[in-house]
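If it is no trouble, can you show me the amino acids of a protein and the tokens describing how it folds?
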Amino acid sequence: MAVVIPAYNEARTIREVVQQALQQCPQVIVVDDGSQDGTAQQLEGLPITLLQNPANLGKAASLWRGMQAALQLGVQGVMTLDGDGQHDPRDIPRLLAVAEKFPAHIVIGSRLHEKANIPRRRYLANRFANFWIAWAAGYPIADSQSGFRYYPAELLLHVTLQHEPRHSFVFESEILIEGGRRGIRSVATPIAAIYRDNARPSHFRPVLDIVRITRMVAWKLFSRGMFLSGLYRSMSGKALIVE
């Protein structure tokens, strides 16, 4: 396994995040997405693979580049987490344990028990996205927006996704849909979210990014004749959650 961490202007948190990730996995790949605050310099001396984008290309491009680099190492899976410190790398073994029980699944670390701490606007946007993505994927999904995930290599080797800047937060939604089409579903497991006083504001824009996600999902549905069987399956069952 390899850990991939996309980073854009994360100088305040990235070194600690990477050091903790290295304690869980010796193969850590950081993709610096054109940071202007010295993010890359904070990683000097650490035994990692550092990839640097020539400009700010967006989270999708950074994830895609990091995933491809990980696959070249011959890993069986790729763990992704954010560089802002909201994901605790010490939860990596938890996601791995779930991946072992549910092979050929995307494992999502989700703040399932911390709904009260999530800003209401963000919570409603996530619920809205969950509905549409679950419909297009054809199964119930507990959390479609968390970036703390384990992806089996067999999925990453067989999908090609859009990763231009405008697809930054669409990428992680689209891969769930493409996984569902290939019989690779997601399973969620609860994690704790860390809220830091010194962390930078989220790059996620609830209105704009949810609109972009909805457009992508609408195109997926239209291309499949609205995929009504997927709507039925997404609403008739329960999302797979491992406590």
Q: What stands out?
A: The CA atoms of residues 90 and 229 lie 39 Å apart. The chain has a mean pLDDT of 91. The longest helix spans residues 120-137.
